[in-house]
Amino acid sequence: MNLVRIDGSYGEGGGSIFRYALALSAVSLKPVEVYNIRAKRSKPGLRPQHLSAARLLAEITSATVEGLEVGSTRVRFIPRERRGGRYRLNVGTAGSVSLVIQALLPAALFADSTVQVELIGGTDVPMAPPIDYMRYVFARNLSLMGANVEIDLERRGHYPRGGGKVRLTVHPLNSLAPLNVTGRGEVRKIEGIAHAVKLPRHVAERIRSAALERLRESGLNASIELDWSPNSHLGPGAGIA
Length: 241
Fold this sequence. Notes:
This protein is α/β, with parallel strands linked by helices. It folds into three domains: about 1-80, Translation Initiation Factor IF3 (2-Layer Sandwich), CATH 3.30.110; about 80-175, Alpha-beta prism (UDP-n-acetylglucosamine1-carboxyvinyl-transferase, Chain); about 190-240, Dihydrodipicolinate Reductase, domain 2, CATH 3.30.360. About 30% of the residues lie in helices and about 25% in strands. The chain has helices at about 15-30, 50-60, 95-110, 130-145, 200-215; strands at about 5, 30-35, 65, 75-80, 85-90, 115-120, 150-155, 165-170, 190-195, 220-230, 235-240. The strands form three sheets. A four-stranded mixed β-sheet has the order 1-2-4-3, with helices on one face. It has a four-stranded mixed β-sheet with strand order 5-6-8-7, with helices on one face. α1 (about 15-30) packs parallel to α2 (about 50-60), α1 (about 15-30) runs parallel beside α3 and α2 packs parallel to α3. The chain is globular. The N and C termini lie far apart (about 45 Å). The mean pLDDT is about 95.
């Protein structure tokens, strides 16, 4: 077996190298072994939030996996196929839904049929892209490459309780077109979303007003949508993207 071995202590030595190693293994169907996982963190080894994405990737690819447990510093991942279908994943507490989406997409884009995933977890949490960025920036840029990825937000989830709900639909394709960006171009308009849940409406309004003031001081044409919901969430939170 031609096994690709990856040193998880390389660079920042965090969880990203583990997620991306498995993502690339899943899309290429090349077996991989990641060792020294999260070696540079205060608590080395896998945490619960890392296991969830890996287990779903294993399900989609019918993979054989060794070492997939909390605290493990070495994982062997042997994928066999890329299967479409319906899946459900509870990331746990406020584990980032966005980071899971990033890990799943390469395999899902080249599955044998459409992949639909219901994701439960954190949608707007520290150290991860907010779900609005994933919906309106990341997915849009993928569409420029020919990918059809739908990210539907049903409920937000903030740190520490999470509980957000997102539905991911990925339609398969044969190849991605290159994304040619040779110049920055002119900034014509900036759009965004300021949100608050289980908090007073004025929290989201103040966030939006402060952002608009700074952007307009710089001479930029900006429009920021307000998304406020007092109920149907596990815990309070606010943010802007």
